[in-house]
Amino acid sequence: MRIYFVGILLLTVFLAWVGELFIQDPGYVMISYGHYVIETSLWLPVVGFVLALVAILLLWEAGRRMIRTPTSMRRWLAQRGIKSARRKTILGLIELAEGRWEKAERLLIKSALHTDYPLVNYLNAARAADELGDSERRDRYLKEALATKIGHPELAVGLTQAQLQLSQRQWEQCHATLQRLKKIAPDNEYILKLLVPVHQKLGNWQALVELLPQIDKANLFNLEHYEKLQQSIYRQWLKATVQAIKHRSSSIDELFTVWEKIPKNAKRPSEIQQIYVDALLELGAVEEANSFLQQSLCTHWDEALIQRYGLLAIQDIQPLIKIAEQWLKEYPGDAALLLALGRLSLRSHDIEKASAYLEASLAVRHTSEACYELACLFAQQGKYQQAVTLFEEAALGA
């Protein structure tokens, strides 16, 4: 546009200059051809030649533009189509965010072929179809997204598929998808994060134990969340091991191996120690449970563990009573320890001691367990009225 302006300006200056020269001296030119003679001023043919040259140049430019018009038109139409597709894509994403699944799917698919990144359209259309409960359309859109071949769509498509399978509680399918993606991107943190709930739902506790170092290294969760997750995994691993041993009738050594693999810091909480003791007792390893309880209670006092100590079904009960009485010197007013001694004394048929320990336990803290044990003792002694009262208190939770 600027060059045309400069050209018109130069032509105007030239014509003004010629006009000035024409006024000063028009000149004379005579052209003779055959019987024809043309006489005119000098400047008229000069101006005519210049104007003819300008006309030829204008015609040339017009012709060139006419030849280029189809290409330009196509380019303009294409740009207009891309802008329209972008607008529809944005509207589709808004509809998706607002939960209008059908409209979102329609807009995203309609604009997918004309947008710059059809991968985005197909992935979000798959989400909309999944919300509408149409897994067939969802999977078709995911295949279309994979076929775009823009960049490396395998990971994006796979993660979207895993998320949708997770939302539909398709645990086995989701697990297979994530395992395939882990081979493609072994260090991807989001894959690791999705694997946690999937393994939990499928009961793959051994696999989760193996993932714990990666989870810790990647800092996927804050410290509190990680510790809770770690404890939950180890607890479930112990329980699953017990069930596996019972199902396969295999050796209890498998439980010992699992316990040894649990880090020391993860063994400290009382709850996991309780589960381990319960596992030993469930598998009939009473002596091992006794040894573990004595060792644990010597280093860390815990009421839940001392309660289990008082319930140990060991034939020679006197060594247990002696150890518990040593603990009583250190913890003289501990209600759980007094209850354990009362139970152990009952097992050894020492009614006098049992009654004293149980009454002392109730004096410290009125619990339903102590009420029940003392009620049973009173019933054996024929003290039915007292026994009934204590049974009622035990039933009401003391």
Tell me about this structure.
Helix 13 runs antiparallel to helix 14 (286-299), helix 15 packs parallel to helix 17 (335-347) and helix 19 runs antiparallel to helix 20 (384-395). The longest helix has 55 residues, at 43-97. Strand 1 and strand 2 form a beta hairpin. Among the domains are: 203-284, no CATH class; 311-398, Serine Threonine Protein Phosphatase 5, Tetratricopeptide repeat, CATH 1.25.40.10. It has helices at residues 2-24, 43-97, 101-112, 118-131, 135-147, 153-167, 171-184, 189-202, 205-218, 223-248, 253-261, 264-267, 270-282, 286-299, 303-309, 318-330, 335-347, 351-364, 368-380, 384-395; strands at 29-33, 36-40. It has 398 residues and is mainly α. The protein has a two-stranded antiparallel sheet with strand order 1-2. The model has no long low-confidence stretch (mean pLDDT 84).
